Amino acid sequence: VSSATNRMDSLVEDINRLRAELNSRPKQSLVKAESNGKQEEHEIHVDPAIALKEIHNPSAMSEAALRAAVLAKEKLLFEQLATQQKAVRQEAARLAHIENELEELRVAEAQGINRLRTQLEGIDRELVELHRDFKEKERLYLEAKTIFEQRTAMKEGVKSDLTKMILASERAKEEKLNQLMLQMRTSPSK
Questions:
Q1: Sign of the torsion formed by the C-alpha atoms of 117, 122, 126 and 128
Q2: What is the pLDDT along the chain (190 residues), one digit of tens a residue?
Q3: Which of 69, 87, 96, 164 could potentially form a cystine with 51 if both were Cys, beta carbons 3.0 to 4.6 Å apart?
């Protein structure tokens, strides 16, 4: 696009230069000729292809040839401009299509992000509640564990006391029986 723009600028400069030269020359667009005693005016037509070749040496050209060359160059310029405008329109349409595709992707991405953000916020709220519940249950567990350990220690103490009491009672019975047996052996039979 840059090289085409440079070429167009060059063509526009050439056209402006040729127009300035045409305007500086005296107007001689018609050639006067006599035929059968009458004076007639004829316009000179120059082939644009030849004029384009000679356009780089405008001083060697006649005014009509120069005008034809300028017109041919203008026509070429307008054709190139139309071609470039068509290419620019096609490029603009392609860019608009790409922008639409990118916008659709952006909208889809934004919707996905919003959906995930909503899920994340819901999970965060649930985690806060679960953490609060966890802490409460942990506190209750620790209290229950402390009570359980205290009761287990108390039970072990009671079991130990019971065992000691049973042993003491059994010893006392054994002593009593031993005493009674001893009395029975030592006492005369009746």
A1: positive
A2: 566 667 667 777 777 776 676 666 544 443 344 444 544 444 444 444 444 444 455 555 577 777 887 888 888 888 888 888 888 888 888 888 898 998 999 999 999 999 999 999 999 999 999 999 999 999 999 999 999 999 999 999 999 999 999 999 999 999 999 998 888 888 766 5
A3: 69
